Protein: Alpha/beta hydrolase
Amino acid sequence: MVLAYNREGTGARTILLVTGLGGHANFWNAHRPKLAERFTVLSFDQRGCGANRAREGVHTLHEIVGDAIDILAEAEASRVTVVGHSMGGVIAQCLVLDHPEFFDAAVFSGTFCAFDRYMEFINDLRQRVLDAAGTVTCGHLSAILAMPGGDVLDPHYDLMGRIQNITQSMADEVLSARMRAPYKFDRREELRSVELPSLVIGASDDMLAAEYQSREIAALIKGARLEIMNGGHFFPNTRPQRYWEILEGFLRSTDR
Structure:
């Protein structure tokens, strides 16, 4: 059974938006309406999250990829551009490598191509906090790690507002499984074979998916466009205007 998903707009070209660890489609709320003016936009809450909170799963990369492909098939989508942020960018890599027939372009946003020792250390730390103190406290740590440049007064990020509004958005066991999903991920050599028009967006002050990861992805994919901005790990939302300018420019340049 296909997961519940959102479908907005009626354009001939489809944009598939894939969220990261948080798993909720509302991550893209700042950009979905504008995209829907020109494209058909698909987004979805992942298993254990939001509208699909009751859907059981094993919460692996393979499972999320399968759910995304099922949604594309159900929606009879064609000319699909995938836009994935953070772990959603890892899913985007898996989608274009394993199911290239669906895609005509890709955007890898605030993501990584290898779950290396640096990322393992951060995730191990978050896992220990989750085990000891639960989802909300782990969310507090993640919000701080995602801060742009440590500027706690940045009104666009609103660190204190984020911390105060963090709730248990998924069961602890679901979050734990999702946090384990990207361990050992490394498909760098395969990325050399990607021939799709590709955009890689990173942030210079991203502590969770550091800038060097974006640079490596762009170096591996032939002809990939690289854009480095700022705004911490959640830069699509902390710097929405700049993010939209970059994304919209790429989509226009690849519209055929």
In short: Strands lie at 6-8, 14-18, 40-43, 80-85, 103-109, 198-203, 225-229. The chain has eleven helices and seven strands.
